[in-house]
Amino acid sequence: MSAEDDGKTEDPTGKKVGEARSKGMVGRSADFNSALVLMTGTVFIWMFADRLVDGMRNTMIESFKAIGNFEDIPGMLQDMGRQGMIGILYMLLPVVCAITAVSVTATVAQGGFLWSWEALGPNFGKVFSLGGMGKLFSPASFVEIAKSVAKMIVVGIIAYMVASKHYEQYLALADMSLGQFCSTLFSVSIEVIMKSTVVLLFIGVADLVYQKRKLKNELKMSKTEVKDEAKQSEGDPHVKGKIRSLRLQMHRNFMMKELPKATVVITNPTFIAIAVRYNQGEDTAPVVVAKGKRLIAERIRDEARKNDIPIVEDKPLARSLYDVVQPGEEIPEEFFAAVAEILAYVYSLKGARAA
């Protein structure tokens, strides 16, 4: 049954993909890695063929010399084995390093660097459960079997075609010297492996695309799951409420700190209070420094009285400014005339007081 049949039609979210990666679930193709490793090993064996042949010849010569000179001396057998292993490692070092580098690079390139203990740990529940037994007969298992059979058929066909092309050379093997015999078999083997590897590489690329698409389908989510995850990611409502109250408190403290700089407070008269600042030569337009309703409006009026800031009643203006302007913002142009009249009145009051 596909994900669409289960109602899972939505692409997986970033959180779902991250959880899958933590469990080691990434879209990787073992066939693609195997093809690259096989091709790399074949190319480097062909490049370092002379080095490998010389190394094997020297190892064989030294081994037979050691056997002829062998004495029952404590530690001599271990020294012979150690020298033989060092010689083999030195001979195969370029090939092993190249294969390791290509294998690691291909793995990281397919799914990024990933280390998951959960993926490495055994899960006996999957093995001995009915779900684990069901996977043995799932469509994915038949796809893997089909791929294995296809690879065997492809390699067999290529091997047969290459071998039949060199049929006459095989008939002449009996008349060749040992060097010619080994060289012929080596060149034919390299040709078989290289041609097979190229085809296996195409199969690996196709399998990589299939694995990526398969994983995406497995991780698909229903619309309900997407909504639930969105709610969870938003956090606990109680925590959100606490954060919101803290923000409001900080906002009120900021307003009260800026309130003494106000030029006038416009009221509704008791329900709304808007504190406006305008300093000639400093402000390009009047700025709302504080606003509030009910208790906050009352507190704004009290602070205005303490700081000897004029309080002017204008119900329509107070209601309009409260709806469209936030503290710290300049008032819109459509309110310039009304605010200018109030500021002119305030300046006249200050002038009268000064006189």
What's a quick, concise take on this entry?
The chain has 355 residues and is mainly α.
Q: Can you walk through the features of this model?
A:
- The structure is a single chain.
- The protein has 355 residues and is mainly alpha-helical.
- It folds into two domains: 26-110 and 128-218, no CATH class; 258-354, name from scop.
- It is built from 15 helices and four strands.
- A four-stranded mixed beta sheet has the order 3-2-1-4, with helices on both faces.
- A hairpin with a 4-residue loop joins strand 1 (264-267) and strand 2 (272-277).
- Helix 2 runs antiparallel to helix 10.
- The mean pLDDT is 77.
Anisotropy-based shape: elongated
Which range does the strand content fall in?
A: 5-15%
Largest sheet: 4 strands, mixed
Counted by DSSP, the helix tally is 15
Class by SSE composition: mainly alpha
Counting copies of identical and different chains, the oligomeric state is single chain
Number of domains: 2
- Poorly predicted spans: none
List how many beta strands DSSP finds: 4
User: What fraction, in percent, of the residue positions are helical?
Assistant: 55-70%
Compressed to H and E, one letter per element, the order equals HHHHHHHHHHHHEEEHEHH
- Main β-sheet, spatial strand arrangement: 3-2-1-4
The radius of gyration computed from the alpha-carbon positions, rounded to a whole number of angstroms, is 41 Å
Mean pLDDT: 77
> Terminal Cα separation, in Å?
90 Å
